[in-house]
Design goal:
The protein is of the alpha+beta class. The protein has four helices and six strands, in the order αββαβββααβ. The protein is globular, with a radius of gyration of 13 Å.
């Protein structure tokens, strides 16, 4: 549902990281993607929240909106929606490089 919600709003570079076997991880999964603008970034985050609630009955624990990085936190799954420059700067894929990675 999360991946489809991102793709419905034309999110790019969608990747999921399985963090379950990493002791230091704060969540079981990270889902990362890119948006071309702050408007698209908010649209993706809002669509994820709307579609997950509609399909699964789950509401986010927290949404942290920003102009260049927005986080949708479901505790077990955290969705990171970046603008391209911020994704490259924070490079979460390298930080969690031990996690199995799936490109969508």
């Amino acid at each position: 549902t999360i991946i489809k919600a991102i793709q419905d709003k034309k999110g790019e570079g969608v990747v999921s990281l399985d963090l379950k076997k990493i002791d230091e991880a704060v969540s079981d999964f990270f889902v990362l993607c890119e948006a071309q603008s702050h408007i698209q970034l908010k649209a993706i985050a809002d669509n994820v929240a709307d579609e997950v609630e509609k399909e699964c009955g789950e509401r986010p624990f927290h949404i942290e909106y920003g102009d260049t990085w927005t986080l949708v936190d479901y505790v077990n799954v955290v969705v990171h929606v970046f603008q391209r420059e911020q994704r490259a700067f924070y490079d979460l894929e390298s930080l969690w490089e031990d996690a199995p990675r799936v490109e969508h």
